[in-house]
Amino acid sequence: MQSVQDDWEQKFALTDSLRSGLAELQDACSEYHTQLLLSQAAPIEPTFQHSHASPLLSARRNASLRNLSTLRAMSPVPRRPSSALPEAIETTAQFLEWYGRVESRLAAEQDAESHAYAERLRLRKRQCGRMAREAESIEKALQQIQKELERVSERSSGVQAACSEQQARGARLKRMSREISEQLAVYQSLGPIAQLLSAPGDKVCLDPEFLPSLQRIEEAAAFITAHAGARDSELYLMRFAQCRTRGLTLIKMHAQREFRRLGAQLKARSSDVHVRFRTAAVQLRPLLEALQRGQQGAGAMQVLGDVQQAYFAVRMSWLRTHIPRSLQAIEREHEDEAGMLRDWCAFMMNVCADEGRLYLEMFGREAQLLREHEDQAMALFHEQVRPRIIRLADVESLATLSLTLLTYQRPSASEDAQLDAFYAAVAAVLQDAQQRLAFRAQAFVQSEIARYRLAREEALGILESLRASRGPCEYAPVGRLRWLVAQIGGCLDGQVQQGIAHEALAACKQNIVAQGARALRDSAKGDPDAERLAHVFVAATQNSAEQVISDLD
């Protein structure tokens, strides 16, 4: 019985041409890469595989056969000897078996890159899986950390609140400790203060601790008064009040002693008076300002009043001799009353200004006693001026004095309180001068205008002027009216000035009619034009007098 191989050989006998082609194919395969032909250097054993494959070559195999020559040209490989193959392919079955293996190797090599990429993808997938699992574990760890952090934050908040409470408590304790120390310092300061104020000698006020001690006394008294319910508060308050009285008395004694010393120096030598007082003010002012603090009470005000009285007494004792002596010296330098009064006013203005400045340097603030002191100083001036005004009977001199005094009236925009006494005294003197001027002006109207008598020679001159049509000569009362109006202009109050002017006008008109016209008639007896000339004289003269008043209005 023939085998299947023998039957295949009989059915598909190879021709010579096919055999030669197979030989060439075998030679070509011997030149191809060994990796395509061999597997792990194992010889390819052409064995026949029993399969159900078609005896015809598949399209893939045919394509592979057609590309053998192309592969050979693209991948030149050193030619291997034919002996590299295990044996020659003699039958078709051997060839198909060998070709199947070659084809499998080629397919495996062609898909190697895809298989490698797929393997890398599988590797990356495994890595991503591991990373995802790690991320999940990290997320769980972070969640756990977050929980721990929240728990720690809650505990920290509690600790912080407790610390804040402790800090607030510590601050309260410090504040209480400071307040207790301050309160104890109030009571403990009594001993040193009493010891200082009880020290012997008259220089206690000059001790650097004297004024601070007075301040501590006031603070202690205010504190004890505010805490009246404390133990022994009344006793301590009484002892501090005694220390205050002692301190104020020391200030009073020291100030009065200094003022007496300055007064003695002024009697011995009256020069550089203000310099001496200013030098003493540097030392005394801090003490006197301590008396003027509002919290010192009525006792301090009484002590301050006594000190001020002592100060003003010393100053006034000097001014009583200084002012009259200076006014007399100024009087000797002038011959006219107006110039003398002008310099007197300037001198007294400087005196008031100096007194005000010196008082402020000494006491630091103004007081009612300063005004009273300056009023007394200006009274000395008024005593010197008023008799001179009363003695004056000349309208011109009185008018000049009134104008001089008007220049020293208070300016409308002046707010200098230190010169209040000066302006008040000048106003009083001016009132005296204006009253005297008004009285003398009225007397002048009666004596020089109303009672004027026209002399016969003057009447004849007026008639001659009227006959020559030159107009009448100026009538003397009209000229005196014009002079009087000019003198009192600006020296008196407006209404008073108008009243005197109109009074003088009425007296002038009456004199023209009663005295002037009658004198002309008497002087022109027997002249037929005497009456006409008298009327012309009256009309012309009264018109001149009225023109004077109209100019004044």
Alpha-beta classification: mainly alpha
> Main beta sheet: strand number and arrangement?
none
Span between termini: 183 Å
Number of E-type strands: 0
The unreliable regions are 33-86
Strand content is under 5%
Please tell me the overall pLDDT.
80
Radius of gyration: 71 Å
Tally of alpha and pi helices? 20
Roughly how much helix do the residues carry, as a percent range?
over 70%
Label the overall shape.
Answer: elongated
Q: How are the SSEs ordered, and which strands pair?
A:
Blueprint: H1 4-11, H2 16-31, H3 34-37, H4 59-66, H5 68-74, H6 92-110, H7 112-188, H8 190-197, H9 210-226, H10 233-268, H11 273-291, H12 298-332, H13 337-363, H14 368-391, H15 395-406, H16 420-450, H17 456-467, H18 476-488, H19 494-523, H20 530-552
Helix pairs in contact: 8-9, 8-10, 9-10, 10-11, 10-12, 11-13, 12-13, 12-14, 13-14, 13-15, 14-16, 15-16, 16-18, 16-19, 17-19, 17-20, 18-19, 18-20, 19-20
In brief:
This protein has 20 helices and no strands.
Q: How would you explain this protein's 3D organization?
A:
The chain has about 550 residues and is mainly alpha-helical. The protein contains 20 helices and no strands. The protein has helices spanning about 5-10, 15-30, 35, 60-65, 70-75, 90-110, 110-190, 190-195, 210-225, 235-270, 275-290, 300-330, 335-365, 370-390, 395-405, 420-450, 455-465, 475-490, 495-525, 530-550. The longest helix is centred in the N-terminal third of the chain and has 77 residues, at about 110-190. It is elongated and about 215 Å long. The protein starts with a helix and ends with a helix.
